Amino acid sequence: MGFYAFNAAAAGNLTADERWFYARDGENRLISMETLASVASATSVVKSKLVFTCDGQSRRIRKQVFTADSGMWIPSADSKVDRVASRPATNGKVSG
Asked: What letter would DSSP give residue 5?
């Protein structure tokens, strides 16, 4: 069993683990994740970046996936728009 290193910000949020660097906005929402360069160079893991968009109620409405190619971020076919924000709410909960 291996040991994992985790880094946290003063507010207690995860900022990095063995594979990812995590970025948050001023409202403490996860806005992006990026593969650590050390992981991508030491393994066969493809350098990736995930970018999240939230609506006014902090619900994730979009996830964009990018892969690195020659120093540029290329959109992946895995990118999608979540339909959470467009679903009707019932009793204060999102349905679906």
From this structure: -
pLDDT at residue 5 tops 80: no
Contact in structure between 67 and 46 (CB atoms under 8 Å): yes
CA atoms of 18 and 50, how far apart (whole Å): 16
Spatial separation of the C-alpha atoms in residues 52 and 30, rounded to whole Å: 7
Q: What is the pTM of this model?
A: 0.69
Q: Of 14, 74, 4, which is closest to residue 39 (Cα–Cα)?
A: 4
Q: Are 96 and 86 in contact (CB under 8 A)?
A: no
Contact 77, 84 (CB under 8 A): no
- In the block, which residue shows the tokens 């995930």? 50
The answer, yes or no, to whether residue 36 has pLDDT greater than 50, is yes
What separation in angstroms does the CA of 6 have from each of 13, 60, 77, 94? 10, 24, 30, 32
pLDDT above 80 for 77: no
